[in-house]
Amino acid sequence: MSQSFRIPGKGRLSPSRGLRFFFDGKAFDALEGDTVASALLANGVHLAGRSYKYHRPRGILTAGSEEPNALIGVSNTAATHVPNVRATVQEVHDGLVTRSQNRWPSLAFDLGAVNSLGAPFFSAGFYYKTFMWPKAAWKALYEPVIRQAAGLGVSPKEPDPDHYASRYEHCDVLVVGGGAVGLAAALAAANAGASVILCDEQAQCGGAMRHESGARISGRSGWDWAQDAVAQLKAMDNVRVLTRTTAFGYHTQNFVALAERVTDHLADGKDLPRERLWQVRAKRVILATGAIERQLVFGGNDLPGVMFANAARTYLNHYGVAAGRKVAVFTACDSAYGAAFDLARAGSAVAVIVDWRHDVPEDLSRQAQELGIKILAGHRVVQAKGRLRIASISVAHRDGGQERSFPVDSLIISGGWTPSVHLYSQSRGKVAWDADTQRFLPGDPVQDCVTVGACDGTDDLARGVAQGIEAGKAAATAAGHAGGDQPDVAVEACESYAGGLAGDAGQIKGKAFVDYQNDVTAKDIRQAVREGMHSIEHVKRFTTNGMASDQGKLSNMHGLAIAADSLGWPIPDVGLTTFRQPYTPVTFGTIVNHGRGDLFDVTRRTTIDGWAQDNGAVFEDVGNWKRARFFPQGGEDMHAAVNRECRTVREAAGLFDASTLGKIEVVGPDAGAFMDLMYTNPMSKLGVGKLRYGIMCREDGFVYDDGVVGRVAEDRFHVTTTTGGAPRVLHHMEDYLQTEFPHLKVWLTSVTEQWAVVAVQGPKAREIVAPFVSGVDLSTEAFPHMSMAECEVCGVPARLFRVSFTGETGFEINVPAAYGRSVWEILQARGAEFGACTYGTETMHVLRAEKGYIIVGQDTDGTVTPFDAGYGWAVAKKKKDFVGIRGLKRPDLVADGRKQLVGLTTSDPAMVLEEGAQIVADPNQPVPMTMIGHVTSSYWSENCGRSIALALVAGGRDRMGQTLHVPMPDRTIAVTVTEPVFFDPKGERLHG
Amino acid sequence: MADAAMTKAERREPMAAAIFANEAVTVRAAAPASRLSLRAGSEAIAPLSSALGVDLPVRPKQTSTTGSRTAMWIGPDEWLVIDAGEADLMAAARGAEGIFSAVDISHRNVAFLVSGTGAATTLASACPHDLRLTSFPVGAAARTLLAKAEVVLWRQSETEWHVECWRSFAPYVFGLLREGAKDAALA
Q: Care to name a GO molecular-function term for this sequence (chain B) (predicted)?
């Protein structure tokens, strides 16, 4: 298609650099540097999409990231499809494929537009009121249907093939916004020697110079000066200029997140990341974020062909595209006149300038007169008319009277400018209402930041640039960089941005949109107030005004003003909704960046893990660790493998990788005293070379962790923790050491990963281990259960523990981690000669349950004391203090009837209870039954030839032999309460 | 049985061969070293420095090196001592007077060497610390984060960094450094 609206000689794009792209399957010509919006307009296409609720035809309103209408899908492949892309932001590259959204079967003929006929039913609060009843219909009917109909784009279902990058950066000065003011600030700071980052969301810096034709700076047009300034900045080593980069989040302590779009404008991004997240910590932030033009609220203000004044000028002066051939202007602000003048000079006919204000500045009316443009001051556009494109406007005096019609193909509008205080507000700065100019402006900064230029309410370019230079110099000085040349920025001419109107422009005919993206009209806002919503927070939620992805950049001020008018209150009394990040939508890819796939989270593997992988182990996740769960052989399922492993350990022996156990080395002259305080047991009494099972409580007396503690030397303990508990136990101990016991001379060091741990358990354990151990007599007499020694195993230094979590003779061999796999392989080969197997966590769980050994977090749940668990023997009677001693004396914790750990057996030995199942005393009581406990652990025990279970039961220890009941959905299972030890109750095998 | 008694375990370092290189950065595994986590009050600093033959620095981010041995300030009472020659640091520390905690972490930690013009940028892909030369001069070290992993960074020259992490975090840290290095070569 020819670019018939491209004006020869206008704009800054090069006519020789042609591109071709697709919109709804049709090929369009464009120029390099075009956005999809400018290229569509060049081809005379204004209709770009359908609206969210009413499916109204929508055009291109803006030329920036605030665009609420022209939202398109961009998809070169199904997996890289991006919905809701603003056509005003997406740059065209050769072969770009774009589609309109929210229409079926076609953009020009959309069946969904019948919603418009149902408009009375879709008024504010429609969903809240309509889908309330019957309740059951919500899940089954309303929600699925509403979800189907809602939303604009369609998300891709395939994994994103693009990659994204991330960068942390630090600087003296971050300047957000590359308009004239931001550039001046950056130059001033950089000249002084400060490190500067300047970011701008557009492809090129320049800000308002992109559309203005009247500004002259230092002898050049504003735009040319801006490009020179950027070149100057880019040439400096202490400056980084980031274009296509949006500062979207302002966090505490001047931590600002930027999203850089790296490849969306390229036909072939090659190896580049699609986007890059910058997390910048700046000593000072200069916000030069400018202002956003807003619409006027009148009937049909959403018709394709209606366009903001700055946008019409941007398309003309930057892209060389005329918005229309016969245009009218409706404004309440001086700045729209420039659009009329520029368009008139470029050859478009300007039918009329309708100014809502009664008084028009003299120089503007004189220029209009020179160009032969009629001005109707004190008038308003009552309604814009047309179907898929504006065809005419009806104009009347503000006070009413005769309507006059003007045929137009485009209407340029301006309701004035709203300062972009978004980032300032995110920094927790409070905005203040400026009654003179009817707008919210930044108040005092809360963080080390400063607002300059239009976002600070400075409309005058010369004053804004002076502010920028001052802010840049001050920021550099504050960072220790004084001096340097003052940037030479002489503003010789600039335009007026005075005027503006918040709220509707008189009596409305037709639909007058306040929030284009969410289809909220002025009438909806007034209705919300009538229905009792008096706070803007309520109005917003009831109408969804400002809740679309543009976050009310255009609609907030109008919504507020209309609500205030309806209430008869001043605007600031209605309140202001909070500006939240992100400033514009940010992809998940950017936020996640490298953190996907293997880098999503840390996967921790022991040094023995490779052997388990090579030998077919099935793994389970325990915290961040992968642990071998069982080692199936010859097609065994888990049940068969675990049965075999359980049997083999008790008949011969088994090898288990216990490396993931948390290990903390507690060292210092007060190590014993500290251990006494942290554990319920009398640890200071533990002899060197001995082990003790320890229980750690919280202050409240409940079990927090358990583990085996070895005394390596008088002043050195080797403490083990549960695998999952390792980090929090270290923090718990460190917390007490630093806050409660700082007088103790003792230090804690995590050694979890220093040691690989091979557990060898079973009647043959000693025979398997013995030949590899040097320097220790392993006989039961010399090295009984709960002994430890520093020695050599397989020729490497080791800490050898005689300990058991199976109830069998057992050794846990700690060797320096890098030797773990080799030691494991040596012992595994040796074990095989004795019929030993390797076993995983599932077998470990069964074997320990056969012995009634608890697993903290499974058999305890944060409400279980050592006494409840049957571990009262582990609580020292004579100690004066330990963490939890006072908690354990609380009346509730010593009362009768507490839940206690017991064993349960089913009458059918093959019946395995479900873990978590509830237990009742009387199965015939009415529902809801009184539950007296629950099953904590339950397994088939091959060694016992029956199922076994552990349970927490109220008053459990007094119920030995009683029959209780476990109600299940299909039956009730009778169980007998037993001691929680099912195998070798006397513990003889431990000492074998 | 006699054979078994002679069996000596081998050291295995599965990450030792890890390497990634492009025109801006090389990331590779460091050779094994001996390492000590040292905790001590101020009165033990002098005797420990003399026993270890390397001065324990007393200011944040400082390191000091003598021969193959470097001591890094990690916290107000904490040092990481690394001996590239794998000397027995525990034995050396044992000789010192005073109250302190010396714990062997030679196998707990492993290290990567990140070198090249893009080395700092590589680290900055996942590390929030200020790595600019003015803030992180040659010879400085700090315990910090690389995405979700705790690391100790030690700047050995303008373009060379030593990155310590816990052993099981090594594949994750290497993966992050590889992605960071790819991006560092681009911009």
A: sarcosine oxidase activity
Judge whether A818 is closer than 8 Å to chain B, CB to CB: yes
Delimit the CATH 2.40.30.110 region(s) of chain A.
Answer: 849-880+890-991
Q: Which residues 726-745 of A have a C-beta within 8 angstroms of B?
A: 745
A133-137, A182-186, A343-347, A617-621: segment of lowest average pLDDT: A133-137
pLDDT at A53: 85
Q: What percent of chain A has pLDDT over 70?
A: 97
Mean pLDDT of A65-94: 92
- pLDDT, tens only, A648-662: 999 999 999 999 999
Q: Which residues of chain A are within 8 Å of residue B107 when distances are taken between CB atoms?
A: 753-755, 816-818
Note whether A243 and A178 are within 8 A (CB): yes
Residue A143 pLDDT greater than 80, yes or no: no
CA dihedral in degrees (A880, A884, A889, A890; nearest 10)? 150
Over pLDDT 90: what percentage of chain A? 89
Min Cα–Cα distance to chain A from B32, Å = 10
* CATH superfamily placement of domain A295-415: FAD/NAD(P)-binding domain (3.50.50.60)
Q: Which member of A273, A604, A796 has the closest CB to residue B9?
A: A796
Look at residue B97 and tell me whether its pLDDT is greater than 50: yes
ipTM over 0.95: yes
CATH architecture group of domain A1-156: Roll (3.10)
Contact B107 A816 (CB under 8 A): yes
CATH code of domain A849-880+890-991:
2.40.30.110
Minimal Cα–Cα distance from B6 to chain A, Å? 8
CB contact under 8 A, A753 and B171: no
* Nearest partner of A180 among A447, A478, A495, judged by Cα: A495
Q: Is A591 on the interface with B (CB under 8 A)?
A: no
- Rounded Cα gap, residues A190 and A606, in angstroms: 51
As annotated, the residues of chain A forming the CATH 1.10.10.1100 domain(s) are 510-569
Confidence check: pLDDT of A121 > 80: no
Provide the chain A residues 633-692 that lie in CB contact (below 8 A) with chain B. 665, 667-669
Query: Which amino acid type is present at position A7?
Result: I
What are φ and ψ of residue A833, in 5° steps? -65, -25
In degrees rounded to 5, what are phi and psi of residue A793? -125, 130
Residues of B in contact with A829 (CB under 8 A): none
A601 φ, ψ (degrees, to nearest 5):
-150, 165
Q: Is A827 on the interface with B (CB under 8 A)?
A: no
Cβ(A662)–Cβ(A726) below 8 Å: yes
Query: For an interface test with A, which of B144, B167, B186 has the most A Cβ atoms less than 10 Å from its Cβ?
Result: B167
> Hey, how many other C-beta atoms are within 10 angstroms of the C-beta on A218?
15
Q: How far apart are CA A67 and CA A373, in angstroms?
A: 29
Q: What residue in A sits closest to B3 (Cα-Cα)?
A: A771
Please, which residues bridge with residue A412 across strands? A307, A329
Q: Check if CATH label 3.50.50.60 holds for domain A164-291+419-493.
A: yes
Where exactly does CATH 3.10.20.440 map onto chain A? 1-156
CA of A759 vs chain B CAs: smallest distance (Å): 16
- A45-59 residue pLDDT tens: 999 999 888 889 999
Q: Is A605 on the interface with B (CB under 8 A)?
A: yes
pLDDT digits (tens, 9 = 90+) for A247-291: 999 999 999 999 999 999 999 988 899 999 999 999 999 999 999
CB contacts under 8 A, A 744-783 vs B, are 745-747, 749-755, 771-772
Where does B95-133 have alpha helices with state H? 119-124
Note whether A753 contacts B102, CB cutoff 8 Å.
Answer: no
Q: Give the pLDDT confidence score for residue A330 in this predicted structure.
A: 98
What domains, with CATH codes, occur in chain B?
A: 23-186 (3.30.1360.120)
Hey, are the CB atoms on A795 and B148 less than 8 Å from each other? Answer: no
Which residue spans within A858-970 are E strands per DSSP?
A: 899-906, 918-920, 931-941, 946-954, 963-967
Out of A594, A598, A753, the one facing B108 most closely (by C-beta) is: A753
Decide if domain A510-569 falls under CATH 3.30.70.20.
no
pLDDT in tens, A935-972: 999 999 999 999 999 999 999 999 999 999 999 999 99
**Which pLDDT score, from 0 to 100, does residue B1 have?**
45
